[in-house]
Amino acid sequence: MTPEALIDIFREALAVIVMMVSAIVLPGLGIGLIVAVFQAATSINEQTLSFLPRLIVTLLALMLMGHWLVQTLMDFFIEMVNRIPQVIG
């Protein structure tokens, strides 16, 4: 196995991880920003007010994107299994 092949596999793995994590985190980040602006505009300093909307949006993102997340992970795994002969030989 060449170092270039290992770096290519590592790069692809990081790309899959970043895609999957950003699909879950970015909606919560957007809602957190909206709630923070609302709290700043109304001078409400309740910490739990920002937690519940972010939790709900994160759970909704997991529910809506769950199929895509699993499919992406399965495609990556199948690609890695298909590369075993190339890596070993």
Keywords:
89 residues; single chain; mainly alpha; bacterial flagellum; transmembrane; transmembrane helix; flagellum; membrane
Topology diagram in text:
Elements lengths: L2 H40 L5 H35 L1 H5 L1
How would you describe this structure to a colleague?
The protein has 89 residues and is an all-alpha fold. The protein contains 3 helices and no strands. It has one domain (3-84). The termini are close together. InterPro entries: Bac_export_3, FliQ. Role in flagellar biosynthesis. Keywords: Bacterial flagellum, Cell membrane, Cell projection, Cilium, Flagellum, Membrane, Transmembrane, Transmembrane helix. This is Flagellar biosynthetic protein FliQ.
Shape type: elongated
Please trace the helix and strand order, writing H or E for each element. HHH
Radius of gyration: 19 Å
Continuous helix count: 3
- Biggest sheet overview: none
Chain oligomer state: single chain
How many domains make up the coordinates? 1
SS content category: mainly alpha
Total beta-strand segments: 0
Mean pLDDT: 91
Q: Percent of residues in beta strands?
A: under 5%
N-to-C CA distance: 7 Å
Q: Which consecutive residue ranges, at least 5 long each, have pLDDT under 50? A: none
The portion of residues assigned to helices is over 70%
Main location: membrane
GO biological process, one term: protein secretion
Keywords: Bacterial flagellum, Cell membrane, Cell projection, Cilium, Flagellum, Membrane, Transmembrane, Transmembrane helix
Protein name: Flagellar biosynthetic protein FliQ
